[in-house]
Amino acid sequence: MSSALVARAAFNRNVAAAFARRSLRPLAVQARGAADSAYVPGGPIYRGTVNDPTPFPPPSKTHGSYHWAFERLLSAGLVPLTVAAFATSGTNYPILDGLLGVSLVMHSHIGFDSVLVDYLHPRKFPVLGRALTWLLRATTVGVLVGVYQFNTNDIGLTELIAKAWHA
Predict the structure, then answer these.
(1) Residue 42 has pLDDT above 70, yes or no
(2) What phi and psi values does residue 73 have, to the nearest 5 degrees?
(3) Looking at the whole model, is its pTM more than 0.90?
(4) Which of 19, 32, 38, 60 has its CA 20 to 30 A from that of 2?
């Protein structure tokens, strides 16, 4: 009885090995043919060592410290701009009213964009992240058009807030 179990186990091992060789061979040949270099058993070879410094991207005005400085300048500039817009009437100074409207929309856009970058990055969510980023851009353009129309054809942003405040 034990010799039958040993024979069956050996037979099953030989069948499983032959099946694995036949079924995995096309994948290995395809992977080797698609690669530019020869197959290395330990995995891909990376240039450099662990002690080499990380290459940094070149500075850009839309990323990094320039972007951070613009966000802080816009946020700090909103305080005196808001005080000036409400200290004067929006109908007397339409340029100030327009600057306040555009600054508030851009401040909101940067804030929502930071949320998307932090939580729905396109590398992790390739479809949803990009779709929501473009939706945010389209919404920002739509709100800017609406603020322009409201400031030029209606009472303006500061007058609206003043009326709502006193209502």
Answers:
(1) no
(2) -65, -40
(3) no
(4) 19
